[in-house]
Amino acid sequence: MSRTDRTDFDTLAVCAPGVEPLLDAELAALGIRRRRVVRGGVEAVMRQRQLYAANLWLRTATRVLVRVETFGAGTFHELERNAALIDWQRWIPAGAAVSFRVTSHRSRLDHTVAIAERLAAASGAELATTGDRRDDESPDDSAPVARFVVRLDRNQCTLSADSSGEPLHHRGWRRQVAKAPLRPTLAAAMLAAVGWPTNPSPAGRVMFADPFCGSGTLAIEAALAATGQPPSPGRTFAFMDWADFAAGTWASVTAVSSLDDGPVPLIVAADRDAGAVAATVANAGRAGVAELLSVTCASVSAFAPPPGPPPGPDDVAWVVTNPPWGGRLDSGGDLRDLYATFGQVMRERFTRWRVAMLVTDRHLAAHTGLGLDHALVTTSGGIGVQLLVTGPIGEKRDGPRRRRAPGGPTRPRRGSPKPT
After folding, report:
1. Which of 399, 398, 350 is nearest to 370 (CA)?
2. Strand partners, 38
3. 197 preceded by cis ω (within 30°)?
4. pLDDT, tens digit, for every residue of 302-345?
5. What is the distance between the alpha carbons of residues 321 and 208, in angstroms, rounded to a whole number?
6. N or C, where is the chain less crowded by C-beta within 10 Å?
7. What's the CA gap between 283 and 263, in Å, rounded?
8. How far apart are CA 189 and CA 18, in angstroms?
9. Which phi and psi angles does 63 have, rounded to 5°?
10. Domain assignments of the chain as residue spans, ordered by start
């Protein structure tokens, strides 16, 4: 039953529902061909080098799972017998505990805790009692955990190893968060949905703005993507402790230089909360992009674009933001007035910029007075959200407005790593 001689990995790159087309485009940019798109992820066959590159470079994925085995599990005896045949040492480093995320559908075995206990016994490792950390928690390097995902369906057990370890949305640089933080993978999906960073002409400028920056997640993700850096520079992954980890292959993956001679992005961000601004500055420093961001403590009514003329045909200019939602946090005032002020500022100061905003209520978004189309529908913390976008501010539309389908670029963007 063991697959230790396998050179390819059957994988599932996991993402939030609705983000699958964007993740599929990211995989294609890495030279990884999908097998099929499923709800909440993309299945693909990856070589070892591609598995490493996927963990390093994917911005919208939350984890990359590797299929270990599928076997019958109609009874606990059958589960134990088949689990004992697995080469667990390939996936579990010495001294590590194990964690199993178990789901069961239409199967005789439905006691998920008992299933996890049987699998832990078969692996010979201690069963961990802690789950994934919250975004604002620090890692505990003294307690390594090998994570597995288990799915029982019609008495068939599918066991997958988590090659990522800590979820990929746990960016190493994001140690400080503001109220109602935006998950980095959702921020990356917002940017991918609008095509950021779009290739400008050699003489063009690349500009980005966020007037509700919180702890800086959108601005920092935009800076990393625009300069061709991985989303979490310097972090480690679970596959680095696997028995067949190839240090030389990993070194060659991390040695790939994706920086180019494109223009340095001009990024401005602001928040009315001084603590949020301090968190943005600190997070940007850890991400290595502090010099690219101009961060101020200001209300949306005082927000302004970078110095210089309005964007021209050779420029790329996006306002991408996550304004307060009703029920998400205490806005301290009428959200309709806040959205109306935001729209007024966009029309008066951001001529020929494009705007993308994440909202839960399209009727509330209508108070901006901006012509908004759908670009992405997904979830955030279990809440349905929409990314709405505009054309260049101040330019007349040609023809009737059309709804944009979710999806990202199908070819590598500027700053993408070379296919592996």
Report:
1. 350
2. 41
3. yes
4. 999 999 999 999 999 999 999 998 654 444 458 999 999 999 99
5. 10
6. N
7. 23
8. 10
9. -170, 160
10. 8-162, 184-227+264-389
Both tokens of 266, joined, read 């001009």
Q: What pLDDT, on the 0 to 100 scale, is given for residue 256?
A: 72
Residues 261-293 as b or e (16 or more Cβ within 10 Å = b):
ebbebbbbbbbbeeebbbbbbbbbebbbbbebb
Predicted model pTM: 0.89
Do residues 284 and 219 lie in contact, with contact meaning Cβ atoms separated by under 8 Å? yes
Contact by Cβ (8 Å): 361, 328: no
What class does CATH assign to 8-162?
alpha beta
Q: Which residues of 222-250 are buried (b: 16+ CB within 10 A; e: fewer)?
A: bbbbbbbbbbbbebebbbebbeeeeeebb
Q: 356 phi and psi, to 5 degrees?
A: -130, 130
Query: How many CB atoms are closer than 10 A to CB 33?
Result: 11
**Residue carrying structure tokens 């190493």:** 172
pLDDT reported for residue 399: 53
Distance CA 241, CA 230 (A): 21
Task: For residue 82, give both structure tokens.
Answer: 């088949």
CB within 8 Å of 251: residues ≥ 6 apart: none
Question: Which residues does the chain have with pLDDT short of 70?
Answer: 1-6, 130-143, 178-180, 199-200, 257-262, 326-333, 397-420
Tokens 């075995």 correspond to 109
Picking from 417, 413, 418, 410, the residue whose alpha carbon sits closest to that of residue 25 is: 410
Mean pLDDT taken over the chain: 88
The superfamily (CATH) of domain 184-227+264-389 is Vaccinia Virus protein VP39 (3.40.50.150)
